[in-house]
Design goal:
Elements (H helix, E strand, L loop, with lengths): L1 H13 L4 E5 L4 H17 L5 E7 L6 H21 L3 E6 L7 H7 L12 H16 L5 E4 L8 H8 L6 E6 L2 E6 L7 H10 L8 H12 L30 H8 L6 H14 L21 H17 L10 H10 L5
Parallel strand pairs: 1-2, 1-4, 2-3, 4-6
Antiparallel strand pairs: 5-6
Helix pairs in contact: 1-2, 2-7, 8-9, 8-12, 10-11
């Protein structure tokens, strides 16, 4: 953790006049990256830092984490303002034509797969790229909470660009700089940075840890050395069909967040109809034979279910029945007991 802070100090000192853009998802890795960057700034000797913390609202984020992040960003922004820092928070959204259900219902896109993950560029990458273009692209550094040991797929991606903590992100004919402060941290070090580094005070490590614990199952009193780290689950979009099973949503429901059940059931249904030939045109968009876009009947069925789900959605109801968890959710939502 201290090495990550020292590496970040050197990075800030190397680019003191850059616009630092930190991609904040609200998960443990982006939270760790934010805390490390702020700790590095305090140690860097710099008198100011142009930092923007951005959150990409895809419209289909896990509702529990989405509520947490938006409440957290508001509190962090107020804290920055009260301290007179040149820091800002920003929520980015894709234009309407790129949003998940516009593409799925309006255009018949089947849910994403590992071979065709069409959602990520439109919902996450391009909104950030557009924001950078509106600022100063050549003088922007994007901070990402990526780690080598996060997954085998992530390791393969990082291996293609072995530059270390500094990387290049290419979008079309442009590119911009990436800085990865937690690249070499393991999960326990990530949690250490969240709990032990100071600021922003708005971040409540225990609330975040409880969310992860609920999403991955309670940790045993005695854990085998070879077992995966506790509270190491991953959150994603509630519509995500790239993974075979949405384990975090399943565990959250088991932990008492029963209001997530309709989302979980919708996601499973969407995954099933994706492979149903009767729900797909028999011809691809390219004109070749094979399962193409959703049929009109399939798209009507999706719209009907989404309409029904939207009537049930109420972020204030996303609480845990247990009194202890209810208080945690109250803090999570930014409310008082």
């Amino acid at each position: 953790m201290l090495t990550a802070v020292e590496t970040s100090v050197a990075a800030l000192q190397a680019r003191p006049h850059a616009h630092w853009l930190l991609a904040f998802s609200g998960g443990k890795d982006s939270t760790s990256a934010l805390k490390i960057i702020l700790a590095a700034y305090r140690r860097s000797g710099l008198t100011s830092l142009n930092l923007t913390v951005v959150y990409c609202d895809t419209g289909v984020e896990n509702p529990i984490l989405d509520a947490y992040v938006k409440s957290m960003l508001a509190a962090i922004g107020a804290e920055f303002e009260s301290e007179g820092e040149r820091f800002a928070t920003k929520i980015l959204r894709a234009p309407v034509q790129d949003r998940f259900f516009v593409r799925s219902i309006g255009r018949g896109y089947p849910p994403p797969t590992n071979s065709l993950r069409w959602c990520t560029p439109g919902l996450r990458i391009r909104p950030v790229s557009r924001f950078i273009e509106e600022q100063d692209p050549k003088n922007t550094v994007v901070v990402l909470g990526l780690r080598r040991a996060e997954s085998q797929q992530r390791d393969r991606s990082l291996a293609k660009t072995p530059e270390g903590h500094w990387q290049k992100q290419r979008e079309g004919n442009r590119d911009y700089d990436l800085f990865l402060p937690i690249l070499d941290l393991q999960v326990p070090e990530v949690w250490d940075s969240i709990f032990w580094l100071s600021g922003p005070r708005a971040i409540r490590p225990k609330v975040l840890q409880d969310l992860y614990r609920d999403a991955s199952g309670e940790c045993p009193v005695i854990k085998a050395p070879t077992a995966p780290p506790c509270a190491s689950g991953r959150f994603g979009c509630w519509t995500c069909t790239v993974v075979r099973h949405d384990k975090s949503a399943s565990k959250l429901i088991e932990a008492g967040y029963d209001q997530l059940r309709p989302y979980f059931e919708f996601r499973n249904w969407l995954s099933e109809i994706r492979n149903d030939p009767s729900m797909r045109w028999p011809q691809r968009r390219s004109g070749s034979a094979g399962m193409g876009p959703f049929t009109l009947d399939a798209r009507k069925a999706i719209l009907h279910r989404i309409d029904r789900l939207s009537r049930l959605r109420s972020l204030k109801s996303l609480t845990h029945p247990n009194a202890v968890r209810s208080r945690a959710c109250g803090a999570l939502m930014g409310t008082r007991d």
